[in-house]
Amino acid sequence: MFKVALLAAFVAFAATSIAADKKIVCYFGSWTIYRPGLGKFDISDLDPRLCTHIIYSFVGINTDGSLRVMDSWADLPSGLDGYGKFTRLREKSPGTKAMIAIGGWNEGSSKFSQVASNPGTRTQFVRNVVNFLKQYNFDGFDVDWEYPNQRGGQPSDKENYVALLRELRQAFNPLGYILSVAVAAAESSASKSYNIREVSQHVHFINLMAYDFNGSWNPKTGLNAPMYPSSRESGDQAKLNMNSAVSYWIQQGAPRDKLVLGVPSYGRSFTLANSGNNGVGAPSTGPGAAGPYTQEAGMLGFNEICVNLGQGGWTVIGDPEQQVPYAFKGNQWVGYDDASCVRKKADYINKMGLAGAMLWSVETDDFRGTCGQKYPLLNALNSVLRGGVSPSPANPDPANPSPAPTAAPPPPPPPPSTSVCKEEGYVRDPNNCSTFYYCKNVDGQYQASTFHCAPGLAFDTSINVCNYKESVPGC
User: Which of 17-26, 30-39, 257-266, 301-310 is predicted with the least confidence, judged by mean pLDDT?
Assistant: First the structure.
């Protein structure tokens, strides 16, 4: 009996240790500090205790091998000091590593290709990266080249990418810096860009972007990040799913314990050609309507989706084969991940022995708790992968414990007079350019919520976003 109890205790301890070792990598899109209303995300909104690694996105690359600060006012100490605020989040969670990513979709491929192709420029780039990490106190560097040998790249990118990673890792090792990559997940793209076995040798972990498998670039509705193929699919389309991507990377030599599975906190949306034909694979006429925060046609943050669903009128369907939901209302259709399917993906990570999960990105999770729990998707990952355990608290002194995560903040007070509201939507304060309101019609009366732009910014009514004052007429 004692032996059985001892064995059970050992198994429980081992399971806890395994869970505690899983990575939860959280990307932060720095441009989201400019989003309007409740979509505006400040660095202080990020709870680092929910992440093992936080990654600031992005810094740019120049053809001479130098790094380009994307928004000096937002990023540098001379302005809002985004870099400093971000790395200081470790004070709340010393176990969390603060990294920065280079590249992204908008940066493209051609400049990476030029830098990586020249040994001298490559050496200079590595030196510049090391100096940058030292100067701004980051723990590591994430290479998000989208993508080698594509989008203006060249065939030699595949081997030059490996050389670039090898030289970065060699420079990082004596300094203890972390090196990771964000990579295309699907075989159709990854096979063009990567020698997977060699890439895997030089990085600490691989962030597999297992989303954007379908979107409004296609003429039919499709799920953003399905777990498995559908019986409706064949050929390459049947490989556009999480399981097929993970299987391909493993088959090509990626170690399971370096693969971090990407999970999206947003959905891909469509406008249906016929609102009566609303399943997966239904004809569409283009992207879905833009959301109030993300303001991008064809995508909706989970924080926008959950509000829509809460307002009623939407039909939610859980696809039994692909294991993720979609929803439709009228001619609008969106495929997305909710907390339930995120837990399924986390179970899959454990089952497959993968390194952990990555969330793109924290600011489109329900970070305010508008629909209930704050960070429902990120909390779902933590509950399965880490048993609810987050990195070490900021103050481990039991006599003076750190405060528990707080509940969602109370709504901002209404403006002095609701006379500013003439219709639903955003309106700027007539006496203060940096203050604006969101007016909502509730039972025939307007309710106004108050918001404030960051110092030096004014609310630009032409785009409904805080903008530089000099760019806003009348301010």
Answer: 17-26
Residues in the chain: 475
pLDDT digits (tens, 9 = 90+) for 394-446: 333 333 333 333 333 333 343 444 478 888 777 888 888 888 776 766 667 77
Is the four-CA dihedral 134, 136, 140, 144 of positive or negative sign? negative
Q: Before 58, cis peptide (omega within 30)?
A: yes
The C-alpha atoms of residue 148 and residue 105 are separated, in whole angstroms, by 12
Query: Taking Cα atoms as reference points, which of 338, 238, 249 lies closest to residue 281?
Result: 238
Taking only the tens place, the pLDDT of each residue in 240-298 is 999 999 999 999 999 999 999 999 999 999 999 999 999 999 999 999 999 999 999 99
Token pair, residue 323, equals 């294991």
- Does residue 92 carry a pLDDT above 80? yes
Q: What is the pLDDT of residue 437?
A: 76
CB 302 within 8 A of CB 337: yes
Distance CA 4, CA 266 (A): 46
CA 404 to chain centre: 24
Distance CA 175, CA 378 (A): 30
Q: Please list, residue by residue across 44-54, b when 16 or more beta carbons sit within 10 angstroms of its beta carbon and e when fewer do.
A: ebbbbbbbbbb
Question: How many Å apart are CA 382 and CA 3, to the nearest integer?
Answer: 32
Prior bond to 189 cis, omega within 30?
A: no
Mean pLDDT value across residues 363-376: 96
What token pair was written down for 146?
A: 């989208």
> Crossing angle, helix 157-172 and helix 119-136, to 10 degrees?
40
Considering only CA atoms, give the Rg of the chain. 23
Contact between 91 and 394 under an 8 Å Cβ cutoff? The reply is: yes
Contacts of 78 (CB under 8 A, 6+ apart): 72
For 426, other C-beta atoms within 10 Å of its C-beta total: 16
Tokens 């600011």 belong to 363
Residue 324 near residue 227 (C-beta atoms within 8 A): yes
The amino acid present at 252, given as its one-letter code, is Q
Q: Which residues are tagged catalytic?
A: 146
With cut-offs at 50, 70 and 90, classify the pLDDT of residue 364.
very high
